[in-house]
Amino acid sequence: MNLKRVVVTGLGALTPIGNSVEEYWENLAKGTSGAGPITKFDASKFKTQFACEVKNFKAEDYLDRKEARKMDPFTQYGMITAEQAIQDSKLDLSKINLDRAGVIWGSGIGGLKTFQDEVDNFVSNDRNPRFNPFFIPKMISDICAGLISIKYGFRGPNFVTVSACASATNALIDAYNYIRLGKADIFISGGSEASVTEAGIGGFNAMKALSERNDDPSTASRPFDKDRDGFVLGEGGAALILEEYEHAVARGAKIYAEVIGGGMSADAYHMTAPHPEGLGATNVMKYALEDANIDPTEVDYINVHGTSTPLGDLSESQAIKKVFGDHAYNLNISSTKSMTGHLLGAAGAIEALACIFALEKQIVPPTINHFTDDDQFDSKLNFTFNKAQKREVKTVLSNTFGFGGHNTSIVLRKLD
After folding, report:
1. pTM over the 0.90 mark
2. Which residues are known to be catalytic?
3. Rounded to an integer, what distance in angstroms lies between the CA atom of residue 157 and that of residue 124?
């Protein structure tokens, strides 16, 4: 089958280290930490009292106040980044076939704050069932894709992928597949998450998944460091306009990168722990490279899942060595979660933007907060510790893995 080519023609970002793509990229290059004490609620009773929050954000600065009240923050983030991406793409909606334009979004949890607030209200009012009429549509994960499509009139495929922390990359791969199969011309894709709530922090604390470095939040996310003690919860989102290549060229669009492959796999091992030998991670990277029809030696940079957990970081590094062999030592590897924290279902979207940053600027963003080497890791691997590195970057791979054993990898290339 003659598959279509797929390119990225628009970007939007709302992250813990920047409320626009430009600001996000600037802080990636600087190695800026987005972590700090939680401001959204009193976290003094929690084991973890910090997170990577979106900063200087008021929904009414971006959205109609009345409409914003009908949305959970995760949907607000999605609507805002989608608008940024549409503006960046310079799409003229009056000149495209809206029946062939769709939205595929990713969110691992959806409207967690809405659910928490409504249950709190129910309990505090003597269990009197006075629920907000927007409770259900604000909470459900798919509403973000639905509202984006309503705003722009996109009548093509429309849904949200839910695969825990792999959700946004799943969404991007699905959009890529629809376009290359000739079933659509354009997608708004990406992901958003807003889990910095009492329920989010409390739930992940109960799992012992979060860092508890309350004395120094800015250095708490320490991927591949000997003293890493869990991930830092983040929030925000990112949107990408994926477009069929000829369609983009015909309208004179700026092309940031080409999507050339995607892989998906399952660990089939444990509810929350990664496979100890990195089996799922190994398979998903192999599948992505096979789908891209490239040799492992063609990859220059891997934006790893790298959450700063004891088991996950080790498993992923072992998988990289299995897949790339000796070429693993020629790669730059970095975890931008060291700066942004872990955006759960939105992680793959902002990390795809970090990969495009590497392709655009020929700079690999760093893994910050490295203080102590861990003998479990191969010291010959280049984890791009603490400072961004300039190098030729033509092809990048991004990994995202989720609870339940969900694994996704996507491959992007600088357009010739």
Report:
1. yes
2. 165
3. 41
**Alpha-carbon dihedral 400, 235, 130, 132, rounded to 10 degrees:** -90
Q: Is residue 6 a contact partner of residue 180, using CB atoms and an 8 Å limit?
A: yes
Q: Which two tokens stand for residue 83?
A: 């608008």
Q: How many residues does the chain have?
A: 416
223: in domain: yes
Q: pLDDT tens digits, residue range 291-326?
A: 999 999 999 999 999 999 999 999 999 999 999 999
Rounded CA-CA distance 361/393 in Å is: 9
Tokens 């080790």 found at:
314
Q: Identify the helix (H) or strand (E) that includes residue 389.
A: strand 389-390
**What are the phi and psi torsion angles at 149 (to 5°)?**
-65, -35
Same domain? 208 vs 233: yes
The residue assigned the tokens 């479990």 is: 376
In a 10 Å sphere around its CB, with 0-12 CB exposed, 13-18 middle and 19+ buried, how is residue 215 labelled?
A: exposed
Determine phi and psi for 240, rounding to 5 degrees: -125, 140
Tell me: the pLDDT tens digits for 338-369? Answer: 999 999 999 999 999 999 999 999 999 999 99
Strands 332-334 and 363-364: unpaired
Give the CATH number for residue 117.
3.40.47.10
Residue 266 lies in a domain: yes
- Per DSSP, the three-state class of 386 is coil
